């Protein structure tokens, strides 16, 4: 049986993939923090569910709705922390882009309290979101 926080992350990504960001946000602790790396305009620390949802909505806008989460595997989690490996794709005027990422999670009381994203090709991600 998967750990409850692993199940939480699976539902989190299912809602993201479906575009149901409001339901996805129910996974967040009240004081959730998201750390987005890079030098693009959306990089930085986003505090609170509304700031994180705004961040995700702005990514969708920047990619003109072409951003897709094409793979999430593996997902691992325990009581305190978790991780997920992701593959993201988007179409740009310069052609398609594919980026791999790892997101590290911290949990508090069965909800996500912190997310740290790490991207395999940070330069491509920065270019996409600039």
From TrEMBL:
Instruction: Using the record's annotation, list all stretches that form the SnoaL-like domain.
Output: 9-114
* SUPFAM superfamilies, per the entry: NTF2-like
| Cross-referenced InterPro entries | NTF2-like_dom_sf, SnoaL-like
Q: Which PANTHER family match?
A: BLR2505 PROTEIN
Q: What is this protein called?
A: Nuclear transport factor 2 family protein
Species source reads Lipingzhangella rawalii
């Amino acid at each position: 049986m998967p750990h409850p926080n692993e199940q939480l992350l699976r539902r989190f990504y299912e809602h993201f993939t479906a575009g149901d960001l409001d339901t996805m946000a129910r996974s967040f602790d009240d004081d959730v923090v998201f750390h987005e790396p890079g030098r693009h305009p959306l990089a930085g620390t986003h505090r609170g569910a509304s700031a994180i949802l705004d961040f995700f909505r702005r990514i969708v806008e920047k990619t003109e709705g072409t951003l897709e989460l094409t793979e999430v595997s593996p997902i691992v989690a325990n009581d305190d922390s978790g991780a997920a490996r992701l593959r993201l794709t988007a179409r740009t005027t310069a052609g398609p882009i594919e980026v791999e990422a790892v997101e590290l999670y911290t949990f508090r009381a069965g909800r996500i309290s912190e997310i740290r994203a790490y991207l395999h090709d940070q330069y491509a991600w920065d270019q996409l979101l600039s």
